Amino acid sequence: MENFTTVPEPNNTLGNWTDYSIQYKVISSWLLFMICALGIVGNVMVILVVLTTKHMRTPTNCYLVSLAVADLMVLTAAGLPSITDSIFGSWVFGHYGCLCITYFQYLGINASSCSITAFTIERYIAICHPIKAQFLCTLSRAKKIILFVWAFTSLYCVMWFYLSDIQELVYDNNVTIITCGYRVPRKFYLPIYFFDFGVFFVLPLLLSAVLYGLIGRILFLNPLPSDPKDKKRKNGQNNHNVNDRTSCKNSRHSSSTATSRRQVTKMLAVVVILFAALWMPYRTLVVVNSFLDQPYLDSWFLLFCRTCIYLNSAINPVIYNAMSQKFRAAFRKICRCGRKSSDKPATYSVALTYSAVKDTSMVESTDHFTTELEELTVTDELLSDQKMFPDPCVYGKVNFSDA
What we know:
Layout: H1 22-52, H2 59-88, H3 94-128, H4 130-136, H5 139-156, H6 160-163, E1 164-170, E2 176-182, H7 186-221, H8 228-235, H9 240-289, H10 299-323, H11 325-335, H12 346-362, H13 366-375, H14 377-385
Antiparallel strand pairs: 1-2
């Protein structure tokens, strides 16, 4: 993000130094602090939820953990130093701080882009090639891919240790300002920036657009699973009670799986769209400034670009909470000091399960309801085997008062 501060070419006068206004300092520091604080808390919660909840350890969620770690890196290495820059107008972290902060900034940016690309490809394989997904979209393979992503980006970003450095700028009114910028002239670092722009922004977005288009064609245009009554007529077996129960279970499972896939895909598509939209002002500014003799560096517009970047790293946990019933329930569990319900006896699990069904059926949408059922298939089978309810397909007959 040091592209915001352009180091003048040799033999160019710097003019007079003008400090930021009090209004700018108050608004920028408060705004950046709030976004960074909320983003750090939210991304830490995402990591804790996936690491401490067994049923949340899926390949997709592993990529979301990688994205959360990258977002944390952006918020701490780019967001928090921007607050001091807004207040003091000068670099206060010294030479080694400049090197390390610049490195971690670009590492977080590039790792987040690669993580988004990875879970987009994983979703494409899981939905469009379900047979291959059985051995390609596994937890162990996801961990290996994440390890490769971080190893690759860590090695790639080592060059910023040699390209960045602090500089003392002496203005005409005898004011000395220390900046963390580039060690090489502008014409040399622009090719590096454009390479980053193409590989870690344009290419992932083009790939995501194509893959989500293919996913949408498969996921939203295919007909729903066939009616269990049709399957019952074709089978013609004598044991109608067992047949009805089995058909209803299969129908519920396929319907909930399809709905859950749609829900997860929508959530991840929103993450990608926001990534493109919130990074666009900064990327556009740097591209435009690359062709201008005098770069456009209005402080308020730069604040807008910074805010969009840090908001992109902070908003993902909000999206998970708003669009995923599983994440919302796990966030609530973390906020309630991590009460463990999975290790409780079966009778307690039954009450908890149908209490959740009651809440979601009355408050939440159908997508969240079916997603919850997909998680609770084992408990549902236990209830139907014990003949607690006469018809497992009719939810209106369930007595929730006991729960």
